[in-house]
Design goal:
single chain, alpha+beta, Chitinase A, domain 3, 4-stranded antiparallel sheet
Length: 646
């Protein structure tokens, strides 16, 4: 019974101790004053400092300890800035507000448009779809009639009509029409977004249930295949053209030849050697048929389709294209990249194909949200009183429209005079004739910016990422001001202290050995040896050939400089020496041994070094004062739990 009770007590004790242990994120790593630095905050700071969580996790306990010391000192400085009232400093507040304005709109556009856009592209581009479509253009019949026809065709297909036959009969896409509407493989970013979205929402073998509109017309879409996308493959090929040695077309002979090569390969012949021996593609023949890496649609369709159906190491059957008969071997393929690796390319693709439409949609949404209204009376007044004026050259019009509202949004209104004045600094409108067309375009331009700024203003309170970005910048300007107040403004270096520091540290400031020399250049050893023999016999250095000169140079800066410095006296000449495939004969002009710099020569370095020394002393004194004030306590034993799960 005793042992049973003891076991039960141990279980209860373990449970109590476990229950009392703090959550991983709440473990306290250091304390100063009434403030605590907990695990979650420390981990976030460490990841930010390291650049990624993967890099942060590689830090040793010693490195974690050093970073905890640095981060705790940083947090004590921030607390000191708050105590000093930096948050009420008007110049700092203005700097922070300017920063917010600069990045808020960019952050908003990335959050609302770019980031979701590139993620959508990334996920779609993992797959490729083979798609067919029937396109009805509204060019001749008009939009309503085109939609009506497309809808009736779709209804017929839903009722059993053959898609390919309907495409051949009705489609206005002359390229895919003869193929039953087949437009081959597509992936994200290749076709208009409405078409792409419909295709990716459709299962293979199915027709999208609605007519889809793009800038080209109305589309009925069928997906015939969906497969994981291979971004690029590397392939080799053997080409036998249709023409015989006499230049005449002979497809039968070409087919027989390619069949015989394929038989040899099946019996063990090396593909690359066969390509070198038989291929009639001069561009790849000498490389064993290697074509390098290529993407889908970069080769002619028949070649492309066959190549992308092969696994690495496989050889195709005979493939016929307009160039001749091919045998294809896939030698490598690239894997689909990670999001981070593909991010910049995705951004470029998104901005080229999607950004403007998404931007326009966001602006339309904001105009509705903030009830954006242009004041027609003001617009009419400006256009009727502009009197052929250009932007930037009619101050009277600006004065006369002060106090008039040109547009409103939310609880804001735009003063017409200020609006016109601001256009002077806009390169798109400066110097142009003021008329109704320009005013409408300018209202779109400036009004869009105002709407975006208004939407971005509230992000600090409802977006944690943006709030963290602003906080980091705020802390940055606090630290800069503290450094200015506590370090840089207190450094006082006069000429006496500068001279004394030079005398104490002059061994740190040296001029290296230097040399001046001239040289003759030769492109082989024979003329160099012949020239040296003439010099030994008394010929003048200047009489041998063209001379190059080098003024005082670090004696260790090059092989030629070292050879020159090794000569004893000015006027001495070296034997021919080789460097970088050429031969040189060198004549010493002057050499100076290593020496200490004079105060004048070293003054800039001495001043910089003394400033650094004083700055380090002042910084250490400041940190010591903070330590004495806040008395930080470090729990280094808890660092072993960094990035460990609860």
């Amino acid at each position: 019974m005793y042992f049973k009770m003891l076991g039960l007590f141990s279980i209860i004790l373990a449970f109590v101790l476990t229950s009392c242990a703090p959550k991983q994120s709440d473990i306290v790593l250091s304390e100063f004053g009434n403030h605590k630095i907990k695990m979650k905050e420390f981990e976030n700071a460490l990841v930010k400092n390291s650049g990624s969580i993967e890099a942060a996790k590689k830090d040793s306990l010693s490195q974690l300890k050093d970073f905890l010391n640095l981060y705790t000192t940083f947090r004590m400085k921030i607390r000191d800035a708050e105590v000093r009232g930096y948050d009420q400093d008007s110049s700092l507040k203005n700097e922070l507000n300017d920063y917010k304005k600069k990045i808020a709109v960019s952050f908003l556009l990335n959050k609302e448009i770019v980031d979701p856009g590139i993620k959508d592209l990334y996920n779609k581009r993992k797959y490729e779809l083979r798609v067919s479509h029937i396109m009805i253009r509204p060019d001749t019949s008009g939009d309503a009639a085109a939609l009506k026809l497309a809808t009736s065709i779709l209804d017929s297909i839903k009722n059993g009509a053959d898609f390919a036959e309907m495409a051949k009969k009705y489609s206005d896409d002359v390229y895919s029409k003869p193929l039953g509407g087949d437009i081959y493989y597509i992936t994200g970013g290749m076709v208009p977004e409405s078409f792409e979205d419909a295709a990716y929402a459709t299962e293979p073998g199915q027709v999208y249930p609605n007519v889809v509109k793009t800038k080209f017309g109305y589309h009925i879409i069928k997906v015939t295949e969906k497969r994981k996308r291979i971004p690029e493959i590397r392939a080799s090929h053997i080409l036998i053209t249709y023409r015989n040695p006499d230049g005449k077309e002979d497809t039968a002979s070409a087919r027989a030849k390619i069949d015989s090569i394929l038989t040899k390969i099946k019996n063990g012949a090396d593909f690359a050697e066969m390509a070198k021996e038989y291929s009639q593609d001069p561009g790849s023949k000498t490389k064993g048929g290697d074509l390098g890496f290529f993407k889908r649609r970069q080769m002619v369709k028949e070649f492309d389709e066959a190549a992308f159906d092969l696994k690495v190491g496989e050889v195709s059957g005979v493939v016929k294209t307009r160039f001749g008969y091919h045998l294809i071997k896939v030698t490598d393929q690239k894997k689909y990249p990670s999001f981070d690796a593909d991010k910049e390319d995705l951004k470029k693709l998104f901005k080229e194909t999607r950004y403007q439409d998404k931007y326009n949609s966001l602006i339309a949404k904001l105009k509705t949200k903030y009830n954006f209204k242009v004041i027609g009376k003001t617009l009419d007044y400006i256009s009727s009183h502009s009197d052929s004026a250009t932007v930037g050259n009619d101050s009277a019009l600006i004065v006369n429209t002060k106090g008039m509202t040109i547009y409103t949004y939310g609880d804001n209104s735009k003063d017409a005079g200020e609006f016109l004045s601001g256009l002077e600094n806009n390169h798109e409108f400066a110097g142009k004739l003021i008329n109704l067309s320009l005013l409408k375009s300018a209202i779109d331009n400036v009004g869009n910016e105002d709407l975006l700024e208004k939407e971005a203003i509230g992000m600090e309170s409802n977006d944690s990422t943006f709030a963290a970005l602003i906080k980091d910048y705020k802390y940055g300007i606090y630290i800069f001001k503290l450094q200015t107040d506590e370090v840089w403004n207190k450094i006082n270096i006069d000429s006496t202290s500068l001279h004394k520091y030079y005398e104490d540290t002059k061994e740190d400031y040296k001029l290296p050995a230097q040399v001046s020399y001239s040289y003759l250049t030769f492109f082989s050893s024979e003329p160099a040896d012949s020239a040296y023999k003439k010099l030994e016999e008394g010929s003048g250095f200047n009489s041998i050939g063209k001379i190059s000169e080098v003024k005082l140079q670090d004696a260790s800066s090059s092989g030629l400089a070292k050879v020159a410095y090794d000569l004893e006296n000015p006027g001495d000449i070296s034997k021919p020496v080789m460097e970088n495939g050429k031969y040189y004969i060198i004549k010493l002009t002057e050499k100076q041994p290593e020496r200490l710099k004079t105060f004048s020569e070293a003054k800039a370095q001495v001043s910089s070094a003394l400033q650094d020394k004083e700055a380090n002393t002042l910084e250490n004194n400041y940190v010591q004062r903070l330590d004495n004030l806040y008395k930080p306590v470090y729990h280094y034993d808890e660092l072993s739990k960094v990035f460990k799960e609860d």
